Amino acid sequence: MGKKxxxxxxVAAAQAVKYADxxxxxxYPIRPYTGTMxxxxxxxxxxxxxxxxxxxxxxxxxLSIVLxxxxxxxxxxxxxxxxxxTYAFETYSPIAGSRLPVQMMIADRTLDPPGDFGxxxxxxxxxxxxxxxxxxxxxPQEVFDNHLINYRIGEDHRVLxxxxxxxxxYFVSHIPGDxxxxxxxxxxxxxxxxxxxxxxxPKHPVSHGPQIRPDQGAALxxxxxxxxxxxxxxxxxxVDDFNRIxxxxxxxxxxxxxxxxxxAVFFISGAHAETAKFAIRxxxxxxxxxxxxxxxxxxxxxxxxxxxxxxxxxxxxxVETNNSFGSALSGGILSLDLAASLYNLPKRPLLTSFMGxxxxxxxxxxxxxxxxxxMLEAAKKGKVERETYWLGFES
Length: 395
Known about the structure:
By secondary structure, the protein is α/β, with parallel strands linked by helices. The protein is built from 13 helices and 14 strands. The chain folds into two domains: 3-246, 3-Layer(aba) Sandwich (Rossmann fold), CATH 3.40.50; 254-390, 3-Layer(aba) Sandwich (Rossmann fold), CATH 3.40.50. It has helices at 9-20, 34-45, 59-71, 83-87, 92-97, 122-125, 140-155, 184-190, 217-246, 272-285, 303-309, 334-342, 365-381; strands at 3-7, 24-27, 52-55, 76-80, 103-107, 133-137, 163-167, 177-181, 254-257, 264-268, 290-295, 315-320, 350-355, 388-390. The strands form three sheets. A six-stranded parallel β-sheet has the order 3-2-4-5-7-6, with helices on both faces. Strands 9-11-10-12-13-14 form a six-stranded mixed β-sheet, with helices on both faces. Strands 1-8 form a two-stranded antiparallel ribbon. Helix 7 links the parallel strand 6 and strand 7. Helix 1 packs across helix 2 (34-45), helix 1 (9-20) runs parallel beside helix 7 (140-155) and helix 10 crosses helix 13. The longest helix has 30 residues, at 217-246. The chain starts with a strand and ends in a 5-residue tail after the last strand. The mean pLDDT is 94.
């Protein structure tokens, strides 16, 4: 039988790694992700987890260690936060290009400056074009579940892609919640042993690495692009199987909350969605027809699902807990992907965006109410006044 514990997001990640029975862990400290490595180090030292725990000299070394271990046929785990994520940037494309299902947790923190401990997603999203699967958990329970789901998807021989399993710094990483830990038999049923098709082996030599012939470049890039598209039906298959075995009710790609008759919806990724739900319940009691749409995956982007869901609303407000300086809308990243997804539809909602949570700041109830007022006013007028608002400066 499973059991329930009270734990933070970093504890949930460590528990998932233990249940996944990883072989090699590489660490280098940077808060707020460090708590996961502290938990795993204890597990290895106490004999609860039979794994090689390697303390690297830096983040670049961390990723290099798990690259080699994964290529040799080991299930691996590493992680980082903020500037640590960017320090390892050179390694992301070689890992994805080698089709190695390395798993990396990210507990977000703001890049310097200001470098604050908090929920800004810019650190992970700066890597979004490197060929890694990527998505955010909103609760410690979802952290635990997402790690297992990502191992299953990434290690599938039809996929073989690395994964960034992300959680908001502080708002998930350090705020406790209930975590239902499963029976180990359930995990064994769900997650088969890792078996790389062509591992490094002195008895059966193979080549891993960048292109060997000059004419390989485009073919390798196309292969990565095709694999990212081909993963979508596999995500659905795996999440459905996870729900069956563990008794969850996750949508494979997009969560909807109180959207049945909504005129305006928040589009938001990560932990601030939980605050948004409280705000929505309160606004519903006042007669405001607002709801929430939350993508569970950022890469691959759930284009088809969003094209089915979003046209039924009058206005969408994208809550951007990230920044893309000088971008088309002078705001964040999610608005751009969402706008591109909806552009060719004959009917599409009005779109505006709100910059919030930057520098790790809280997005409070009053700010969600401000955003709702902006969206509902746009619905009445049939147009948006502005494409981007900065919360705390204009509310």
